[in-house]
Amino acid sequence: MNTIIKKLIKTLLILPIFTTILFANANQVFKKIEHDLDSIIIKDLNKKQLIFQKESNKKIRPASLTKIMTAIMAIESGKMNSPVTITPAMIKVEPTILGLKAGEKVLLKDLVNAALIKSANDATNAIAIYLGNGDKKRFVHGMNVKAKKLGMKNTNFQNPCGFDDTNHKSTASDLLKLTEYAIKNKTFNAIVKKESYTFKTLNTKRTYTARTSNKLLATEKYMIGVKTGYTSKAGACLIARAKEGKQDILLVMLNSHNRWENTKLALDTVLKKK
Question: Residue 96's closest CA among 73, 120, 114?
């Protein structure tokens, strides 16, 4: 028998065993991870297949993952290069903040970068008030209208930042839908992969630098975003996207006690990293 044919047959015989081992190892990893969080969903975007999920339709506080909706609405507003005058109401929020001062003028795109990269609540609040024409509730209403259009059936936003309001809830499945929509936008993708962003105010020329809250961006080459989140009641949350070769993986994790370790373990497993 031809040597090449013999090698091919041998490979084909081994392949199912190898695949079974990989599948078994992945199941073990996911079982370990799921005990350490409230909800998770992982999807292969290229194959359009769900890889793993746990309580993906459970309504949970999404913390600053909320800012993905705030940011994409700003990006789609067509006003990214418009100047925004910071008002006292815009900066009347709790940390994390960029430290904006009332009276400063910045571009809307600078606020969007700060909201997504640093998760700055003053920048996010400013986006909502500006685009709501001074009425933050009007903007939040728009967030919920947008959510329904995207099929986010179990989501209700009560603020643009992700604070722990009583009925501010979403699900891992809904947040996956939101992120799948957002990453179709080139501007959004360009922002969420940045480790830092520096800009100057238009009038005072004060310099601000927003540094990422995503610890995996600097250490994992396959990581290309997307957003972190944390509050005392929501716990640590993360939406992560990893690309390597033909693989494009999106992960949503809610209330994880070890989000960085769990995310790296999950993505390394899916991407078959040693």
Answer: 120
